[in-house]
Amino acid sequence: MKEVVGLMDEIKIFSGNAHPGLAKAVADYLKIPLGNCEVFEFSNENIFVRILENVRARDTFVIQPLSSPVNKSLVEMLILIDALKRASAKRITAVVPYYAYGRTDKKDQPRVPITARLLADLITVAGANRLLTVDLHAAQIQGFFNIPVDELTALYILGRYFRDKKLNSQLVVVATDIGISKRARDLAEKLNAPLAIVEKRRVDNAGRSEALNIIGEVQDKIALTVDDEIDTAGSLMNVVSALEKRGVREIYSCCTHPIFSGPAIERIAASPIKELVVTNTVPVNGERKLDKITVLPIAPLLGEAIHRIHTGSSIGAMFE
After folding, report:
1. Catalytic site residues?
2. Which of 7, 166, 222, 282 is the most buried (most CB within 10 A)?
3. The domain made up of 155-296 is a member of CATH 3.40.50.2020
4. What is the pLDDT of residue 210?
5. Which fold has domain 8-153+299-319?
6. Segment (H or E) for 302
7. Distance, CA of 298 to CA of 87 (rounded, Å)
């Protein structure tokens, strides 16, 4: 990162309680202190926020993934944005490494909401001037906003890790469903590997799914499954089972957002997956971490993007 004398003093980074460690790592990357604020919950569950330093005419960034508890993390972020707006911040960028409710991006059943759009409206009305996020579940969510949206991708971080592992020429990248196939194809190109796609269908609104077919050759290959997030790991286990039936030699997995809710950790621990590689867009606590789970830092990617937003440099150039 190039030093810009005088300009970095104008940046202020604040964090709620969702992932303060990530915010601190981003501030450390930028060589600036983390902004001073109070964010806590009263006994009646009302959230209180107070900015404890001057932000007038400053370029401010609120780093808050919408991780568990999701709705509390969301409200903390909205109130932080409102507090900065009322404190006369020059520009407020909502840095949301993990954008919750991303699966509810369309009306695919009668009488259901489009919650991903509702969140976009809430963030905008609260006072955000810009959104910075990582690997949205659906690309069209960018269009739900009437403010600029910068969507980063962790594919380069994940791709570099697996390239350095020097897996042999038998590697095949496997998209866990058709929706992730474009990103999986990009990763396959970076690793000079062929692509296979798992065709699956959702069974119900609880997130259960079943693998129907594998498009592509995987027998006697080393499979690397790719997804944007792992929630309960139910879909991943279906994919792993389907790959085993097709005769793969070894299975690796990667994703950007390790949500790991419910029985996810137990399922991963009992699975034949050799290594699962994720980033820390959401906290991965020690008690939920297995030896087979590798966590790559996302802070340098976010820090460089924040630096470029502040200085008016190209975000796209980061990935060229």
Report:
1. 200
2. 282
3. yes
4. 65
5. Rossmann fold (3.40.50)
6. helix 299-311
7. 29
